[in-house]
């Protein structure tokens, strides 16, 4: 069973205000805004914002796995 994609709770105006690049606007963009905000607050210290980074990377991994499952299902249909 293929999971549904995650729905971000953010608008295009908020993404513009956070200066999120177009290439990074996806299902996880609301988590990316939190990560960007945290990184700017702590001057990009690598040991800070680990929870925000883990949430964003986990969302990206879930999205990748969902797309992989869709591709496998399409391949099996052939």
Topology record:
Blueprint: H1 12-17, H2 29-41, H3 50-77
Structure notes:
- This protein has 78 residues and is mainly α.
- The protein has one domain.
- It has 3 helices and no strands.
- Helix 2 (29-41) packs antiparallel against helix 3 (50-77).
- It is elongated, with a radius of gyration of 15 Å.
Succession of helices and strands:
HHH
Query: End-to-end span in angstroms?
Result: 18 Å
Q: Give the number of domains.
A: 1
What portion of residues is helical?
A: 55-70%
Global morphology: elongated
Tally of separate helices: 3
- Report the uncertain regions: none
Class from secondary-structure proportions: mainly alpha
Rg, Å, rounded: 15 Å
Instruction: Give the biggest sheet.
Output: none
The number of strands is: 0
- Content of β-strand: under 5%
Mean pLDDT: 93
């Amino acid at each position: 069973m293929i999971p549904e994609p995650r729905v971000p709770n953010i608008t295009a105006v908020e993404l513009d205000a956070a200066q999120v690049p177009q290439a990074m606007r996806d299902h996880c963009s609301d988590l990316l805004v939190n990560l960007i905000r945290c990184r700017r607050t702590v001057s990009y210290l690598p040991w800070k914002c680990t929870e925000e980074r883990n949430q964003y990377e986990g969302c990206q991994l879930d999205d990748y796995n969902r797309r992989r499952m869709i591709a496998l299902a399409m391949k099996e249909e052939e």
